[in-house]
From TrEMBL:
Belongs to the phosphofructokinase type A (PFKA) family. Its EC number is 2.7.1.11. This is ATP-dependent 6-phosphofructokinase. NCBIfam families: PRK03202.1 (NF002872). It is an enzyme of class 2 (transferase). It comes from the Bacteria. Residues 3-305 form the Phosphofructokinase domain. Pathway: Carbohydrate degradation; glycolysis; D-glyceraldehyde 3-phosphate and glycerone phosphate from D-glucose: step 3/4. One of its GO terms (molecular function) is fructose-6-phosphate binding. GO terms for biological process: canonical glycolysis; fructose 1,6-bisphosphate metabolic process; fructose 6-phosphate metabolic process. It comes from Thermophilibacter provencensis. The keyword Transcription does not apply.
């Protein structure tokens, strides 16, 4: 008997179900032994508190196109891993106990950066763990791509497209805030795909004067509207010069809901232009996976299952230079993948005339 556990951890995304379908279908087809699947509910919480469902092949049928996660998810912050739960439970010990009690051969963990750190810890504690790179943010180190990314780029791009028509009708400046946590992958890709005039991302600190210049130049050239795409983690040059502690203090003291409001206020102060803010928010994680995500999720799921059948644990499934592979968890856990400010897409966008606010 091959006994495997499955869990989805952290923020959800469109291609989690498609990935689990890939894992389970492959195990059922390729395993020489009968397979038992334990689906843990709400991420690591299910493993801590023994909340699971016995599942089989049929439970994963029809999931290729279904967003969200049938298992549910939650965040179990890595930095609090060794802090007992409110009821006194030792999280790491409880997870190990559940794994051993159910006599699992392998745990598949679909999660982003924080969750991968926990997966690495469990692997170091002796569990057989295989991680799969989930996140709309595409910031997982060690893989070119994460599942969820292209679907969220699609949603964000559609939002920019829709704003374009109304912005041009009214001759307004629009500040559109796009998710991505501490990195700028979604705003960069959606900004280019949506034809933004300005893209502000955390990796390229901006000077508001450069943004104002774009708006004024466009005015002079007869373009009555400007689309400014702002990453939720965008920072100015002054903010980038602060220490991490000082910057955290600044963010904590923010009186506006988010960075888009601060940037819109600055533009308003300096130009007096009519400005609107649009924030697609969690729609960027919702709905169906796009075709690219369905394919990548399937590849990740299949490779994870094959890795399990070969007994290769302590790894994350990845794509490097277009090739599917496994990377050791200890090499990737705790690191972030940032946009390269000198990378091709940034260079090409700049050549086209898109401003990143840095010059
Ligand atoms: O990591 C995915 C993500 O959507 C980020 O882009 C965003 O910063 C965060 O999660 C939002 O988290 P929550 O769902 O907890 O509001």
């Amino acid at each position: 008997m091959l006994r495997v556990g499955l869990l989805t951890s952290g923020g959800d995304c469109q291609a989690l179900n498609a990935t689990m379908r890939g894992i389970v279908k492959t195990l059922y087809r390729q395993s020489k032994e009968p397979v038992e699947v334990y689906g843990f509910e709400d991420g690591y919480q299910g493993l801590i508190y023994e909340r699971y469902r016995m599942m089989d092949n049929r439970d994963f049928s029809g999931l290729l196109t279904r967003g969200g996660t049938v298992l549910g998810t939650s965040r179990t912050p890595f930095k609090l891993l060794d802090t007992p739960e409110a009821d006194g439970v030792n999280k790491v010990q409880a997870m190990k106990d559940t794994y051993r009690k159910l006599k699992l051969d392998c745990l598949f963990m679909l999660g982003g950066n924080g969750s991968t750190k926990t997966a690495n810890r469990l692997s170091q504690e002796g569990l057989n763990v295989i991680a799969l790179p989930k996140t709309i943010d595409n910031d997982t180190y060690g893989t070119d791509m994460t599942f969820g990314f292209t679907s969220s780029v699609e949603v964000a791009t559609r939002c920019i497209d829709e704003i374009h028509t109304t912005a041009s009708s009214h001759g307004r400046v629009f500040v559109i805030e796009i998710m991505g946590h501490k990195v700028g992958w979604i705003p960069l890709y959606a900004g280019v795909a949506g034809g933004a005039d300005v893209i502000l991302i955390p990796e390229i600190p901006y000077d508001i004067e450069n943004v104002i210049r774009v708006i004024e130049d466009r005015d002079k050239a007869g373009s009555r509207f400007t689309i400014v795409v702002v990453a939720e983690g965008a920072i100015s040059k002054e903010e980038a010069a602060l220490s991490k502690k000082e910057y955290k203090k600044l963010v904590a003291a923010r009186t506006t809901p988010s960075v888009a409001y601060d940037i819109a206020a600055e533009i308003d102060k300096r130009t007096g232009r009519e400005i609107r803010i649009a924030i697609p928010g969690h729609t960027q994680r919702g709905g169906q996976p796009d075709a690219q995500d369905r394919i990548f999720a399937t590849q990740c799921g299949v490779e994870a299952a094959l890795s399990c059948l070969k007994g290769k644990y302590g790894v994350m499934i990845a794509q490097v230079n277009g090739k599917m592979c496994r990377v050791p968890l200890e090499d990737v856990a705790g690191k972030l993948k940032y946009v390269d400010p000198k990378g091709d897409l940034v260079k090409e966008a700049k050549a086209l005339g898109i401003s990143f606010g840095d010059e």
